[in-house]
Amino acid sequence: MSRIVVLVGMMGSGKTTVGRAVAARVGVDFVDTDDLVVARAGKSIREIFAHDGEAFFRDLESQVLADVLDSSTDVVIAAAGGTILRESNREEIRARADVVLWLDADVSTLGERAGNGAHRPLLDGDIETRLMTLDAERRELYRSVADVRIDTTSKDIEGVAKEVVAAGFPS
Predict the structure, then answer these.
(1) Please, what are the domains in the chain?
(2) How does pLDDT run across 119-163, given as a tens digit for each residue?
(3) Pairing state of beta strands 99-104 and 75-78?
(4) Which strands sit side by side in the sheet containing 148-151, from one edge to the other?
(5) What is the pTM of this model?
């Protein structure tokens, strides 16, 4: 039986970077749902938003999430930041993941980490204001699916990866 560990959190919280480090450390697969959405659409996230709209992006995001939660191998999944916006996605994550870890950080840290991401159309404009708004909209949703919250503010990748391993792949 496979072990499915899902990382949720805001853009810049460390899901992709930490997820890769954890997967390498414990020898399991790593999947970033944003990467799968881009591959499936054949265009960047920014292009999807511009040409097809956010609703189309969210539909692809839901399809990809369902696919990766069907994994037959051990996997660490970095779920795109907005995945939790749909109740059906939250239900799927709760029902099918072995453990859900919420990587959290303060808005200032998120802005430093995510601010230079040209592929993030939701951060157009005043990045810190956009992140504060998104954080306020999503915080309770992340809390509702998470088994464990890990604060990544002021922590290096290795430190967070150790916490994720301890929570997601206990000995």
Answers:
(1) 4-165 (3.40.50.300)
(2) 554 555 567 777 888 889 999 999 999 999 999 998 999 999 999
(3) unpaired
(4) 29-32, 75-78, 4-8, 99-104, 148-151
(5) 0.90
